[in-house]
Amino acid sequence: MAAMQLHWDIFCRVIDNYGDIGICWRLARQLVAEHGCHVRLWVDDLASLRPLCPLIDPSLDAQSAEGVEIRRWGTEIAAERSADVVVEAFACELPDTYLKAMAAATRKPCWINLEYLTAESWAEDCHGMASPHPVLPLTKYFFFPGFTAKTGGLLREADLLSDREHYRKQIPPHDHLKISLFCYDTAPVGDLLAALANMPQPSIVHVPPGKPLAAVMQHLPGPGPWQHGKARIEPLSFLPLDDYDRLLWQSDINFIRGEDSFVRAQWAAKPFIWQIYQQDEGAHLVKLSAFLDRYCTTMGAAQAQAVKAMFTAWNGGALELAKAFQNFVDNRQAITEANRAWCDHLASQDDLATALVNFCAAKV
Ligand code: TRH
Q1: Could you give the CA distance from residue 146 to residue 130 in angstroms, rounded to a whole number?
Q2: Active-site residue flag, 96
Q3: Which residue out of 247, 260, 284, 287 has the highest number of ligand 1 atoms within 8 Å of its CB and is therefore the one to mutate?
Q4: CA-CA distance, 252 to 262, in Å (whole number)?
Q5: Are residues 109 and 12 part of one domain?
Q6: Which domain range does residue 273 map to?
Q7: Helices 19-35 and 260-268, axial angle in degrees (round to 10)
Q8: Together in a domain, 147 and 118
Q9: Does residue 230 sit in the same domain as residue 244?
Q10: Residues 277, 310: one domain?
Q11: 173: exposed, middle or buried (C-beta count within 10 Å: 0-12, 13-18, 19+)?
């Protein structure tokens, strides 16, 4: 059946932070805008969607924004029928009543578990794997985002890179270092601020509210903005999703975290420094090193070394941050060039929404 006739239900439970809802919202609106799908997005915590999409009213049980029907996922859900495609984001566990409706449907829905992004090679083996339900006549498929053609790819809107280029042409030149700082409060922000204060080149650091600003405020007095040596540190309000992209496009260096901002920084094709979401027993460090192994192959040895050292220092590794950061900045031009090539390489693969639409079209 053609994608445009299909009804999709996407279920999102917000664990913490903005990544889960950011990814689900981005996917939902792209399925509508680019694939003509009918999409309902079920969210348990609508307040977390509001900062990304100020159009929505978190007090409403049902509303529509950018062509997506947004429903509150409360204790009961009023789903009249199950959809043709059901996306369970990040193993959030579908409501029982909905599962039963899926099992009762004459044409069984294509049931997708959208997984977290990892560069580890096992994601290629697990991508698309089928898992029959132990009791109900339903099969769930594991869909892994990733960096290779053997995975589900990365979220990327059709016009993203041309919009980026168009936007960049309008940015006036600047002589300071423009930095965006989106991180967790566990990052060595104090060391970064000290390094920026003492660098020869002046910088402006834009700091979103929440954990990044809290981390800055542990080291600087009062609510800011601050002039800290050579660095001007400016608190920012939380930007709607597309405005955040523009911040990444205009910055010289982006500190990003988690999953979605990490991907957006790669589409920005500017030097970026990733703080990975921490997991138990250091599982995140394996993920970090798997990404570095893939990403750094596009660079010369000096740049790869600078990137690896800075990512390691930023993620709590025993390396001197000031030295790693200065080396990263010194290699900025070459890293920018490598990031352009990396971005073009990623963009030569299907984006995640297209890959998902094609995958599901073959199943329903
Ligand atoms: O908020 P995060 O730390 O989310 C994390 C990760 O997704 C992680 O994998 C997940 O397990 C955990 O949550 C529960 O980082 P992330 O993924 O970058 O999501 C942030 C979202 O917020 C992203 O969609 C970009 C968006 N954003 C804005 O729209 N405006 C802003 O001003 C900022 C700073 C972010």
Answers
A1: 18
A2: no
A3: 260
A4: 15
A5: yes
A6: 160-347
A7: 60
A8: yes
A9: yes
A10: yes
A11: exposed
> Stretch 26-36: mean pLDDT, rounded?
98
Q: How far apart are CA 210 and CA 255, in angstroms?
A: 15
Spatial separation of the C-alpha atoms in residues 8 and 357, rounded to whole Å: 10
Residues 6+ apart with CB under 8 A from 175: 202
pLDDT in tens, 276-332: 999 998 899 999 999 999 999 989 999 999 999 999 999 998 779 999 999 999 999
Rg (CA), the chain: 21
Is the pLDDT assigned to residue 2 strictly greater than 90? no
Give bridge partners of residue 12 from the DSSP assignment.
43
DSSP assignment string, 108-119: PPEEEEEPPP--
Percent of the chain whose predicted confidence (pLDDT) is above 70: 98
Residue 30 carries which side chain, given as an amino acid letter? Q
The answer to whether the beta carbons of residues 69 and 75 sit under 8 Å apart is no
CATH number at residue 33: 3.40.50
Whole-angstrom distance, CA of residue 60 vs CA of residue 21: 17
Segment 92-98 shows an average pLDDT of: 93
Tell me the one-letter amino acid at 318. Answer: A
Ligand 1 pocket by Cβ (under 6 Å): 15-20, 22, 52, 116, 182, 208, 238-239, 241, 244, 257-262, 277
Pairing of strands 231-235, 85-89: unpaired
Indicate which CATH number applies to the domain containing 338. Answer: 3.40.50.2000
What is the number of structural domains in the chain?
A: 2
How far is it, in rounded angstroms, from Cα 20 to Cα 259?
Answer: 9
**341 and 353 belong to one structural domain:** no
Find where tokens 């901002």 sit: 261
Longest dimension (CA), the chain: 68
Give the Å distance between the CA of 248 and the centre of ligand 1.
13
Looking at the fold, whether 178 and 143 belong to one and the same domain comes out as no
Is residue 125 among the annotated active site residues? no
Q: Are residues 122 and 257 in the same domain?
A: no
What percentage of the chain has pLDDT greater than the value 90?
Answer: 94
58 and 133 share one domain: yes
- Average pLDDT value for residue range 148-162: 98
